[in-house]
Design goal:
Layout (H helix, E strand, L loop, with lengths): L14 H30 L1 H5 L7 H8 L3 H13 L4 E3 L4 E3 L2 H7 L13 H6 L2 H10 L11 H12 L4 H5 L6 H7 L2 E5 L5 H9 L4 E6 L2 H14 L4 E5 L5 H4 L5 E7 L8 H11 E12 L14 H18 L10 H11 L4 E5 L7 E7 L1
Parallel strand pairs: 3-4, 3-6, 4-5, 6-7
Antiparallel strand pairs: 1-2, 7-9, 8-9
Helix pairs in contact: 3-4
């Protein structure tokens, strides 16, 4: 691959800059392909069957995973070239090193393989998004297969492990109040895993989850019923007019986890949160950590990915509803503005050590 860029009228051509970008581009192609390999291995179970660190042949691995050997062999070839696995060419065996095992399986603190699914998932709607570039509008939730499944896996690593010990104590009175019994509402609840954990831990409290997706609500309701959580209910609901339809002073705690920025009318939702909170209520909001200005995100460790996800999903699903299209990277400045407009007088923002991607807001009337 050779750089063919030509100097513009106003700029001198920097050959070294072109060469550096060419190198970066080729590397990105390979690293992106590695993410596809990881996504396939995560979903097929290959990574789990390699987690014991023992060397295996392609036939042995295929048998363990109950997969087609030819595809497993080709995957191992790609994984060898990507330095995901170690290969012994004499024995024709492959091994996932422990340093990779702890990062790519459930054996470590976080399974990074979960996040490898986002790019293949977003690629499924590239034609739809391209049409939006040309004609405007957005892509509806129904076009995103597996979206709630992947989001549940994501929140299962960022929210669930620290929900009780780190997120709730951001409002110090909450654990005791939940133990005594309060009314809790989670908006944009998805598959409702956070609510299930809370409902199980605090049986004296009452929990409600709203989400636009029927698929997510049906999954959540079925799972909650299997768990016998009688203090938890789910409802399919469009929150675009929540500023008017929210029951006044109904809830003691309202939560949103990564749910504000892709709403059709986020300010309406926030005004509804303020309306439905009781006088001593608390609103806990997890949302993306970013600036509200492009130049402020240049050093964001996940900035490029998050802007891409905004285009391919978060902004687009909002616009598909005739909404604002706020976008993933709405940022702290815009968030403070919207929280203020919604009527919150006490606004705090926190970051948790395990989570470089999100801010955690504590808001009170």
């Amino acid at each position: 691959m050779t750089a063919q860029a030509k100097p513009s009228v106003n700029d001198a051509f920097d050959a070294s800059r072109a060469a550096n970008f060419e190198y970066r581009f080729v590397r990105a192609l390979n690293e992106g392909a590695m993410l596809q390999l990881i996504s396939l291995a995560h979903r097929s179970g290959l990574l789990g069957h390699l987690a014991d660190g023992e060397p295996v042949t392609s036939s042995e691995l295929a048998a363990k995973a109950k997969l087609d050997e030819r595809y497993v062999r080709e995957w191992l070839g790609g994984a060898t070239v990507a330095a995901l696995v170690e290969h012994n060419p004499q024995a024709m065996t492959y091994r996932l090193p422990p340093e990779h095992t702890t990062l790519l399986t459930d054996g470590g603190e976080a399974n990074l393989a979960v996040f490898s699914q986002y790019l293949p998932l977003m690629g499924q709607v590239e034609d739809d998004v391209l049409a939006c570039f040309r004609h405007g509008g957005g892509v509806p939730y129904s076009r995103y297969t597996r979206f709630h499944e992947v989001m549940a896996q994501d929140s299962g690593q960022t929210v669930l492990p620290v929900l009780l010990d780190a997120i709730l104590p951001l409002a110090p009175e909450l654990p005791d109040r939940l133990a005594q019994g309060i009314d809790v509402l989670d908006l944009g609840c998805g598959r409702g895993l956070a609510l299930m954990k809370l409902a199980e831990r605090f049986p004296s409290s009452r929990f409600t989850g709203y989400d636009l997706s029927k698929e997510a609500i049906d999954w959540a309701a079925e799972r909650a019923a299997r768990l016998g959580l009688d203090n938890l209910r789910f409802e399919e609901r469009d929150l675009s007019d929540f500023d008017r339809t929210a029951p006044a002073q109904r809830y003691d705690l309202v939560t949103t986890f990564d749910a504000i920025h892709d709403q059709a009318h986020p300010l309406n939702l926030l005004k509804g949160v303020r309306r439905t909170l009781r006088k001593d209520g608390v609103y806990l909001a997890q949302d993306i950590h970013s600036s509200s200005h492009h130049h402020g995100d240049r050093d964001h460790p996940m900035g490029t990915l998050l802007y891409t996800l905004s285009i391919m999903h978060c902004m687009s699903v909002s616009l598909a509803q005739g909404g604002e299209g706020l976008g993933t990277m709405w940022g702290r400045e815009k968030a403070r503005e919207y929280f203020g407009k919604a009527g919150f007088g006490n606004i705090e923002v926190h970051q948790l050590p395990h989570d470089i991607q999100n801010d955690y807001w504590v808001l009170r009337p």
